[in-house]
Amino acid sequence: MSISKRVSSLRNLLKEHHIQAYIIPSSDPHQGEYVASHWEARAWVSGFTGSAGTAVVTEHLAGVWTDSRYFIQGERQLKNGPFELHKVYNQGSPQYIDWLLEHLEEGDLVACDGRLFSKKLITSYQKKLAVKNIELKTSFDLISDIWEGRPPLPGDPIFEHKIEFAGESRTSKIKRIRGEMKKAGATHHLISTLDDIAWTFNIRGRDVQFNPVAYAYALITLHKATLYVKKGKVDPLLEDLFIQENIDIQPYHQIWKDLNLMQSESVILIDENTISYSLYQSINTQYKINNTLPTIKFKAIKNEVEIQHFRNVMVKDGVALVKFYGWLEEHAGKGITEYDLVQKLAEYRGQQKGYFSESFNAIVGFKGNGAIVHYRPSEKEALEIRGEGMLLVDSGGQYLDGTTDITRTTYFGVPTDQERDAYTRVLKGNIELDRAVFPEGTLGVQLDTLARLHLWRNKMDFLHGTGHGIGSFLNVHEGPQGFYPGIASRSRVAIDEFMVTTNEPGYYEEDQFGIRIENCLLTVKAGKGFLKFETLTLFPIETDLILMPMLSREEVQWLNEYHSRVYERLSPHLNLKEKEWLKSKCAHI
Questions:
Q1: Is 383 helix (H, G, I), strand (E, B) or coil?
Q2: Homologous superfamily of 3-146
Q3: Residue 67, helix vs strand vs coil
Q4: Are residues 515 and 506 in contact, defined by beta-carbon separation less than 8 angstroms?
Q5: Comparing 3-146 with 159-299, is the CATH topology the same?
Q6: CB atoms closer than 10 angstroms to residue 92
């Protein structure tokens, strides 16, 4: 069925139900960023495949709203189709709701599937739409009625994330959660986000591409914990362990019934940012405490075991990248494409002990494709790596002992002064943030400025955030912290000790080139009341693109010391040819 026919079929249902507009998000019932193919409704109906975006269909109009990471991709994928691209510059604002207010009449009806939106979002939408007496109904799953051949819900088995990697037992984590419940006066606590469930119960899965999680719900009381998963996903040996630890296993959909049958005097701790609106409505008790999930902060603060595994996994990832870039230099100009590079990256990572999967779709952009912030090369349309141009490679791996995310920008040929100037400003921003020493309690938005200073001085900028939290063999994008500008919620979170956050400033010239340099940073003590960063990522930064007069003495020293550490850590794991290659890339400037 073509995109136009899908939209036409959806419009027939709108007419049948007397609905004037239908909203289709990119999320699943657990408010995930990456979702199983069963939940890729927005991509299916619109043809836009970016990981973030919202589609709206009315009787005569259709649009997709997405942020700056996907502007160029959106324009390409939606071109000549029924959907118009709407560029979102402020990710904290649901601009499609404002658009609906402009295009709908007083008293019209807007509908959506309430399982796919958080309680907080639906409440805010209802409030905004009420200004024009527009009703928002949340009980319509219209996509299921027209999506023929929709992929089924995943059924892969859950496996245990062993204590040697987790560093803390399930029993200890649940005890900490109960401590927060008691402080809040709650008898029950509901967790619906997949990474928080995986962290709490020390389990992992294969239900979602790139994120090692499994579809589940969890309900914790002061005396018992219940995990709701699809039948057959927990093997008998793991289930026996759960039983011994007073953890009950129930069918995935049983959560709806159990919430509906709660005692009226129960007090449940929920997070309106993460619980779906429909699940919220199923809770029987009127005593609800809205607070950020305790696990969000718990899992962001890495323990000693996780931190050591982060350090170890960066060595493995660095070794894989040495092999990859060595291969790339030998084969560039010989018929290889951006798509081939994606496959080769996974191949070299796959040779490392404990490799599980890539941590996201590798972004490999040559020349103008590098300006597409979340560009994903396809086999048919990928550019060949031939001739002069900038190459941006943003990739990461999931290993049993950790998660990685790294970006490097390289060049084939002789770069222009404009390209070298832009690259050097991005590098200076990366170093500026990396070298920061800051008081405890400093927010991400305050540190974000450091990465942009040298770009701003030349009236240049990038529209995405500078960095995000990263999980420990969990989601590559993890809250609550991040380096973000403006009013983004993660920008208002303090960067605490033992958090791991990426540092990835960039600069992009549409149809010409893209630049990004990314390392993972661990927050550590810098003295009484102050914090600083330890650079975890181990791979050389391209020096041939640097305009040397632009670097300060301190920046040169930082780069030389970083490269010495990279060579020291990686070289024992390389053969002679690879060592020589790495030595040349780590040469002092």
A1: coil
A2: Creatinase/prolidase N-terminal domain (3.40.350.10)
A3: strand
A4: yes
A5: yes
A6: 11
